[in-house]
Specification:
The complex is a heterodimer of chains A (249) and B (310). Chain A is 36% helix and 27% strand. Chain A is built from ten helices and ten strands. In chain A, strands 6-7-8-3-9-10 form a six-stranded mixed sheet, with helices on both faces. In chain A, strands 2-1-4-5 form a four-stranded antiparallel sheet, with helices on one face. Chain A starts with a strand and ends with a helix. Chain B contains eleven helices and two strands. Classes of the chains: A alpha/beta (249), B mainly alpha (310). Bound molecules: adenosine-5'-triphosphate and magnesium ion.
């Protein structure tokens, strides 16, 4: 199976705090891969590093076989590194932590922004129509300011917007955060559906380990900036360490 | 209709004068507000961008024609010079941002502000050095004899200010609300990191913002120049008042800057005639309004909707 994403021993720091201390992982094309970890483990930092929003102090990141980000030997981000907006055009899209919707723009305008890199108006309209089919509530709310949506609706908008550019790799940062259990179920069902129907690889970051592992092929466990476990998701679900620390069993 | 015992015809006259003054403030205020919307910082060199754009338009205008001769060629030369002034200001705005503000984006808030003040002073002194401190007359490209209707009158230049101001503001509003880049601009002003995730080149959007704001300032500068001449400090007071207009309307809000500018123009004009503020103290009106607004509604009259959910 071909690896769409390869992360090789990356280090990321905020000032003196080292948030990622040599993380390596890979994501196979077509799969759902989840990364679980507690608050402050470095999950969001990892996703931001992949899209180029946080500079690498060490290591490198390959996407579809191409090195998109790396650090020099002296611990500085390489000058050749691609900017986030360029990385995005390669086919990586992210629904960021806290949803990151444009609250003062309408639902429709948010979706249009997701398709910013597409110039073909017909194609954009077709994509919008597809997203409305997937999330009918967004069609009803299309003229409404995104900031006035409920939390669950905002999460759907964030995911729909991330799909507007027809990405090959979708990064989801805690899509279940702060949502009611029934909505969480709904969101995860949609994630599975997207993976099947949209021909997109999904890298899912979650604290909700049970949910994330139950829908993914493979899982990683991140603890204070280090990967401490990696395995097939069903094996992780029955791993005693995972059970004790993340499944509350 | 008697408002404070002012006859209707005089009222119309003051309205015309207030609106033209206000339109100019609005055009300048837009630059402050657009830059603030994206970078959360006040570009204190905006007035000097206006001034240098006006000088470049002035030089081209007198190189191309002798305005006192009149005729259609002069009008064409004027239009070309206006466009040239807009382009020069736009380039200047982009360049200043790249050199003096961009390297300070991650620095504490005060740093780019001080840098802007520094740029403003440098440009003003450079202009005095290169062009002299003596003010230069900017002749109208047309016969500016007032047109009388009833007891009121309007000059062709006032008509031009109102028409040009209206066209600029409507096009800007349409651009920001409807166009792909305008929407990207709004997205960038809400959240730069997420805008980048959409594939938006944030640096280009910032440059575009400076270009548009600066070009509008050049238009205002030329319009001012015809009424009040061209001189190195011409951007100072006009800039400061337009900044007040932007704050009054709600800094960061484009419609707010338009409304704030018009409001300030009307207040200044009517303040003199209604409250009887001496002409010499006219400038105190703007600053008094600023203080009152800051006390009563610090976020300005037209604040943005803040309904984000966490
Ligand atoms: N901008 C920042 N400046 C300084 N420290 C930061 C910054 N962002 C994150 N950190 C620190 O880096 C570490 C990892 O943070 P990160 O946000 O990646 O964690 P997370 O796993 O996403 O947590 P959560 O589940 O709460 O979202 C934390 O210790 C955090 O305090
Ligand atoms: Mg996080």
């Amino acid at each position: 199976m071909t690896k769409i994403l390869e992360i090789n021993n990356i280090h990321v720091s905020y000032g003196n705090i080292e948030a990622l201390k040599g993380v390596s992982l890979s994501v196979n094309e077509g799969e759902i891969v989840s990364l679980i970890g507690a608050n402050g483990a470095g999950k969001s930092t990892l996703l931001k590093a992949i899209v180029g929003l946080e500079p690498l102090k060490g290591g490198s990141i390959k996407y579809a076989g191409e090195e998109i980000l790396s650090a020099t030997g002296s611990g500085k981000a390489s000058k050749k590194n691609l900017r986030p907006d360029v990385i995005m055009t390669k086919g990586i899209s992210m629904a960021p932590e806290g949803r990151g919707i444009f609250a003062e723009m309408t639902v429709l305008e948010n979706l249009e922004m997701g398709a910013f890199i597409i110039r073909d108006k017909n194609l954009i309209n077709r994509n919008i129509e597809e997203k409305y089919e997937m999330f009918p509530i967004l069609r009803d709310r299309r003229k409404q300011l995104a900031g006035s949506l409920s939390g669950g609706e905002q999460q759907m908008l964030s995911i729909a917007r991330a799909l507007m550019s027809k990405p090959k790799l979708l990064l989801l940062d805690e899509p279940a955060l702060g949502l009611a259990p029934i909505i969480i179920q709904n969101i995860f069902d949609i994630v599975v559906k997207i993976s099947k129907e949209e021909n997109v690889t999904i890298f899912l970051v979650e604290q909700n380990a049970k949910m994330a592992l139950s829908i993914s092929n493979k899982g990683y466990v991140l603890e204070t900036g280090k990967i401490i476990l990696e395995n097939d998701s069903d094996k992780l679900l029955s791993d005693p360490k995972v059970k004790a620390a993340y499944l509350g069993e | 209709m008697d408002l404070f015992n002012i006859p209707a015809n005089e009222l119309i006259q003051h309205l015309i004068n207030g609106l033209t003054l206000g339109a100019i403030y609005s055009l300048i205020a837009l630059g402050y507000t657009m830059v603030y919307g994206i970078l959360k910082f006040i570009n204190f060199a905006h007035g000097e961008i206006l001034m240098l754009g006006t000088y470049s338009g002035y030089f081209l205008y007198y190189m191309l024609c002798d305005p006192t001769k009149g005729g259609s060629y002069v009008i064409i030369a004027f239009a070309v010079s206006l466009l040239f002034a807009m382009i020069i200001s736009a380039i200047l705005g982009i360049t200043i941002e790249r050199i003096a503000y961009k390297p300070l984006r991650k620095a504490p808030r005060l740093a780019p502000l001080l840098s802007a003040i520094g740029v403003s002073i440098i440009l003003m002194n450079l202009a005095s050095l290169m062009f002299g401190t003596k003010s230069k007359k900017f002749d109208y490209p047309f016969d500016n004899t007032p047109i009388h209707f009833g007891d009121a009158s309007i000059t062709p230049n006032q008509i031009m200010i109102l028409v040009v101001g209206l066209i600029m503001m409507v096009s800007l509003k349409l651009f920001v609300d409807r166009s792909r880049l305008g929407k990207a601009m709004r997205a960038t002003s809400e959240n730069q990191a997420v805008a980048a995730l959409m594939g938006i080149n944030v640096n280009s959007i910032i440059s575009l913002t400076f270009a548009i704001g600066s070009a509008l300032a050049a238009v205002a500068g030329i319009l001012i120049a015809m009424e009040f001449k061209v001189y190195p400090t011409m951007g100072q007071l006009a800039g400061l008042k337009a900044f007040i207009a932007a704050v009054v309307g709600g800094i960061g809000n484009i419609t707010g800057a338009m409304v704030g500018g018009i409001l300030l123009g009307l207040l200044e004009t009517f303040g003199v005639v209604i409250i009887g503020i001496p002409q010499g103290l006219k400038d105190t009106i703007a600053f008094s309004v600023l203080i009152i607004i800051l006390l009563v509604k610090p976020s300005g009259l037209l604040i943005k909707n803040r309904r984000e959910k966490v």
